[in-house]
Specification:
The protein is an alpha/beta fold. The protein has 2 domains: 257 residues, TIM Barrel (Alpha-Beta Barrel), CATH 3.20.20; 112 residues, no CATH class. Helix content is 39%, strand content 16%. It has 14 helices and 14 strands. Strand 9, helix 8 and strand 10 form a beta-alpha-beta unit. It starts with a strand and ends with a helix.
Length: 384
């Protein structure tokens, strides 16, 4: 039986037969606060868009603060769990292990654990760790219930102020907890746009200080094959296993999973940490062009969901901005009678991606960068 490595499900559908379970270990719910700070950065690259954005911001009733504003993914914790388990249990016929990892929040797993039959659901989060002029995301999985709130509060203090207990000491504390798994998520995603060279230096410096307390490096379901290959090379360089991470924010289930024979999440953690065994499965959606999948994820975020609870159905119910005089954030739907026409027009343009004919054309010209011929010839070389 293969105990480590990876496979692409569209090339090797039989690979699941040697495993009893599959783990989805990085996805988000509506408890996750996602920054809008990327909007002015994106607009800066396009003069027309930059001018329109500046004009709208100058005439806004409330001063626009993209960095204080945020949006939340559409799926509730229960719906997110159903999406991830559905792909594993209905699609693969395996037992589903799921760890939800909202940004700097354990609210979703605590909500699910309130049900009597969910007491073993892992308490996890994606911790945003400031480091120099950038920051990294660490997936922290399966926190001990009795200490989870205290640990989450310490994480938040460090995230917000970069002070308190040093990050290396915090990671050492996590490492001492045998059932906790710490994953370096998408290590080569330059989230602060410092530039590839500077980001590489920061990654190496972070690892020199903290590699002893990290247990795996992520192959991310929303990052490119090229970037995942670099992450795999980094993992080998530091002697760490590669692990899956779907990074789902919309309604599409995770594009990478871990195949395992573990029957509980604690068993899965030991399989990675102690046995150093990890088998990553890339699901069929990963072979779609990355930009098309990102736009489809955006459409999930801006879509209307009539069957959702009131106050979460429209996209402007799920986007938040500081109120007048810097008051706490409130949904945009409370600040206007209808969204600006410019935004609605932009959303309609994005919606064209759902046209079947256009998708066919995009797939032809924007094919994924996976070298399928090499995969068929020698799968072990593809991530080298």
């Amino acid at each position: 039986m293969r105990s480590s490595g990876f496979a692409c499900f569209w090339e090797d559908r039989e690979c699941v037969q040697n495993f009893q379970s599959a783990a989805s270990i990085h996805s988000h719910t509506n408890c996750s606060r996602e920054t809008l700070g990327f909007i002015p950065d994106f607009a800066e690259k396009w003069p027309v868009l930059r001018g329109m954005l500046r004009s709208k911001c100058e005439t806004a009733r409330i001063p626009v603060d993209f960095h204080a504003a945020y949006w939340t993914p559409p799926l509730s914790p229960q719906r997110a769990l159903e999406v991830e388990r559905g792909q594993i249990e209905d699609g693969l016929g395996l037992h589903g292990l799921v760890s939800l990892t909202d940004h700097d929040s354990i609210q979703a797993p605590l909500f699910l654990r309130a049900s009597a039959h969910m007491q073993e659901f892992p308490i996890s989060l994606e911790w945003s760790v400031p480091f120099g002029k950038t920051y990294f995301h660490l997936g922290v999985h399966n926190l001990p219930p009795a200490q989870s709130q205290e640990i989450a509060e310490i994480f938040e203090q460090y995230r917000a102020h970069g002070s308190g207990v040093p990050v290396t000491e915090l990671l050492a504390i996590l490492h001492a907890l045998a059932d906790v798994l710490v994953v370096f998520n998408h290590p080569y995603w330059d989230q602060t746009r410092t530039g590839d060279a500077r980001h590489e230096v920061a990654v190496q410096a972070f690892l020199e200080q903290n590699h002893s307390f990290l247990h795996a490096f992520e192959l991310n379901g929303l990052r490119s094959w090229k970037e995942n290959r670099k992450a795999a090379q980094l993992a080998r360089r530091w002697g760490k296993p590669m692990i899956s991470g779907g990074d789902r924010h919309g309604c599409e289930p995770s594009a990478t999973l871990n195949l395992t024979n573990a029957q509980s999440f604690a068993e899965f953690v030991r399989e990675i940490r102690v046995e150093q065994q990890s088998f990553v499965l890339f699901m069929p959606q990963y072979q779609e062009p990355t930009c098309v999948r990102i736009i489809q994820g955006l459409l999930d975020v801006i879509r209307e969901y009539p069957d959702f609870p009131a106050g979460t159905q429209r996209w402007d119910d799920r986007v938040f901005h500081p109120g007048p005089m810097g008051a706490c954030c409130e949904p945009l739907s409370a600040m206007w009678t209808a969204p600006p026409a410019l935004i609605e027009r932009c959303f309609r343009i994005f919606g064209m991606v759902e046209n079947v004919t256009l998708q066919r054309v995009l797939r032809q010209f924007l094919s994924a960068d996976i070298d399928v011929s090499l995969l068929r010839a020698d799968p072990s070389r593809v991530l080298q």
